[in-house]
Fold Xanthine dehydrogenase.
Amino acid sequence: MHVDRFSEVIFLVFQVVEKNVDPETTLLTYLRRKLGLCGTKLGCGEGGCGACTVMISRFDNLQKKIINYSANACLFPICALHHVAVTTVEGIGNTKTRLHPVQERIAKSHGSQCGFCTPGIVMSMYTLLRNQPEPKMEEIEDAFQGENCLYDLISTSLFNPSAFQPLDPTQEPIFPPELLTHNNKPQKQLCFKGERVMWFQPSTLKELVALKAQYPDAKLVVGNTEVGKRKHFVPVWGFVNIIFAMGQISAVSEFSGICFGASCSLSHLEEVLRKAVAQLPSYKTEVFRAVIEQLRWFAGPQIRNVAQQTCFLSFLLLRIHICILILLDEPIDHGNNTKASFVLLIISSNKANICFLFFSKGEYFSAFKQASRREDDIAIVNCGLRVLFPEGSDCVQEIKLSYGGMAPTTVMARKTCQELIGRKWKEDLLQEACHMLASEMNLSPSAPGGMVDFRRTLVLSFFFKFYLTQILNSQDPSQSNILVRAHQHLKKLFLNYFPNIFEYEVPPGQSIEDTVGRPLMHLSAAKQASGEAVYCDDIPRYENELYLTLVTSTKAHAKILSVDTTEAQNVPGFFCFISEKDVPGSNITGIANDETIFAKDTVTCVGHIIGGVLADTQEHSRRAARAVKITYEDLTPIVTIEEAIEKQSFFKWVRKIEKGNIQKGFEEADHIVEGEMYLGGQEHFYLETHCTIAVPKKEDGEMELFVSTQNLTKTQVSQFLGVDLIFAIGVRCMLDRDEDMLISGGRHPFLGFYKVGFKKNGRITCLDVSFYSNGGNSADLSFGVMDRAVFHMDNSYNIPNIRGIGRVCKTNLSSNTAFRGFGGPQGMMVAECWMSDVALKCGLPAEEVRKLNLYHEGDLTHFNQKLEGFTLRRCWEECIKNSDYHARRKFIDEFNRQNRWKKRGMAIIPTKFGISFTAGALVHVYTDGAVLLTHGGTEMGQGLNTKMIQVASRTLGIPTSKIYISETSTNTVPNASPTAASVSADINGMAVLNACQTIIKRLEPIRSANPKGSWEDWVLAAYQSCVSLSATGFYRIPDLDYDPEKNEGKAFAYFSYGVSCSEVEIDCLTGDHKNLRTDIVMDVGTSLNPAIDIGQIEGGFVQGVGLFTLEELRYSPEGNLYTRGPGMYKIPSFGDIPTEFHVSLLRDCPNSKAIYSSKAVGEPPLFLSASVFYAIKDAIIAARQESGLKEPFRLDSPATPERIRNACVDVFTKMCPSAKPGTFKPWSVRV
């Protein structure tokens, strides 16, 4: 087909007519680069985080109305926007005029922390309200499924609901009338040509056939949810104009059912099926209800709104004969191109339809899915199971069992199905069916995707669920024993959230202008909610700015033989390739000076930076980087902790702490238990990936850096630049999510070996622990992390005889580094592991054994620091009371007696977290009374700036409205400590206090001379008297003098304490679990800001839930990271927040060692999420007891569905024995 001219695309953000459209440009790129609308964020680039959510509006010709739906801008092609309106977060409200009620509520309700994901959350809620002004809670939950964030709603008592503006749907913007006029015009074919890609949008089926014949290898794009994610482009894309027509819905004469066009979106399909379920007899809509249930967990609404139904349903349902394809009803000449014919079958909404059949009586269907995360996750294994019984009989007339996740494509259990026909639906059928399925649905132990035992067991578990469902449907009295204990298993949990009620108090007589202790809104919340907050990559492009893309190693350990940039130089816009040869200063970097900026001669991990490509645009830079060819000579890598132990690959540093007499302690014990526990690592998964902008000043060799970092001091680059600047123009580098996860490293995986001695009553007499961490290819902060792990190996328990040794393994992985908790959670997790074993061995309630061993006021820790102000036992008793622990424990025991395949568990876990760092601050007071405050900490969403303004407000005695805060910069506060270890409010608050007190002291003579004057009067008088109104502040934590050689001195300034009680329910057949309730009591001293502190507790807890139950980094045996984005790496979603979540702050516990009697709150709460892990373990214990297993067992972290299911040993797991280790090469390894 010859193209004479190329089309223009017309859409509305502002009125946009774009004539030069590149088909590879996404809506997100266009909004941010071309229109400068940076409120819509890039979090992952694959539709998995929701940060880029926008609202799409268009006129639907089928429904004859305007429809609004949310979509991922990172996946939405700009060419697909013809005749639609786009609403971004900037378009609904702003701080300069008026916030939209959605924006106002999330800000004033303390729902925004770092704020990067907040615009996406706002737009998801806004779109829901445009469609449902009074939504139900289930609709709200569903709207947030496509959003990933450690974001929590805080209690209604911390803000005043009457202050909110009402939502008035009549005030929302109308659909642009100029777009409506286009719907009356005849459609015409569109064509857009970019640098590499041509995009056709045919207007008729005949045009599509002709195009497909001309370009047989072109991709056909409907929702772009797969092509966009994979980022694989071919020279030509085909895009059908019926993508948004939602397909034809009609009755079909040959059969009874509902027919959908093949490009009908999943959301519209769900809507139609729901109406059918409500209107038709239950037996007819058996499959409809199953499809609706599966759609809920398939993806977030942003994906379901644009993804067509063939991608979700085609093979699974077609194979079991509950869905059929209606072929073309008129001939179309497509020559001899069979591929074009097949494509028409899948894509034409009017000529090839997918039709769901109504069921007859006696026909049953179930669909099951198990994923790593319940919401918005791809299946590990899924299935569609159908059976047909003759009327009044339980003999199988027809049965179809179809499974996904057991082969590269969907597979049928044909042999099993054939054997079951004619059999009665009784228990002997179940037993034989499971044995046959175990044989037929076998997997190689090296199968891609791993989790082989789990996947095989799921096949049997799903069939058993299906069997139970039909038993319940038949109500066969002969199966009464099965019915009684299986009925609860088939009930579904609904997420009914309960508000977290918390009341705050300030001392009587405290001035209303003194905001310390009050729930002041996060300073940046309104700007975050409106998209006005500026993040690093939101900074406008500089003129002639270059973009840097890193070139990284694809080998874990190898020599670099050559680097060929020939192909890269041919990419348009290529500027240059830089490597270690181009660093004018030192190429050595790293905290221990054992790293390089660019690899020289040898690479030591996959993701090791070899060089970088600079080009005129981000797209050109990335294309050129991919074109750089590197040849290697392979060396043997060390990947896992076990490999490092075997080959003695350790960093030389070793930490050892010993107290008491180990031998005597074991001799005094009645019992000794030995064991080990592995704790997996964790990806930081900050929504904003690493970004840096370097801007040369062209004078005196000055370089200004804008960096997304929490450690400015270590980001200065003079030693690397030498005396000459490399470039005289700006350079920007923002990592893609996959690059960030590959390069940056994360929380250290740990392997702990323990031997614990104890009395019959559970009293611990002795503990011997060895820790091994996977440090990666450089030291980084691994020694400090191991230090804290050993310091916290006791958690909160007084152990008279104790020894702990920590070693850091040197491996060929990206260097692991600091993470919230800094080794403390790993040390405490192993402590709770052996404590759980002790309770199980003694046959005593775990809470009794834990309480028996808790420290008391004045006790010495294993590093000989005296515990002063020890409030942990108060936290414990209050948590027991708040959680109604003992009554619920009885209910759980009764629940477990009545249910075989669902079990509940509960655990109460304490934490003791040591706080130890220096800080600086700078305060300027201007002649109009305004105050500009700068400190050395980094605001990352934790409310640090808000708290610092509260501190300055109280110290200076002025309202917070007069105080402004400046961004953190090394030219104002040099040599600041990293914003880490939860101490930022402590140390920066004291530095701010110090600076403000200096100002107050200087103003004292003036205030004495004019006591009735105002703040402005005193400041102006000081200026006129030449009194300095600028002061610096500095603070370091005093008396930290721990001596590791003598094991004496003060290691920490003080300790933060907390206790958490969690209840969970597990599905013993699939390993799925739900967090039912969590109660937390936390000692934060006298809170500076209870709203921010509770937000930090909730956020830390949910991040810990990810660490201990969900997030799993998966590596190949060669050290290649598989989990490089939200598609495979799952952080907690909204549904992972406990159904009931109660947080309370311990009262009357001032801390004399920190600013205004407060305590650190960022890191200590994270470990409280271990209560969820041990509640899961408690539920597994109940499941194992059903199989006669009562001894301690190993459960590694995280407690994923795979680990939970495999630990619930039963008849089905025994049918799927594991392959013997060493007889196969696994797909992934535990590092």
Q: What stands out?
A: The longest strand covers residues 902-915. The domain at 249-359 is CATH 3.30.465.10 (Uridine Diphospho-n-acetylenolpyruvylglucosamine Reductase; domain 3). The two ends are 54 Å apart (CA to CA).
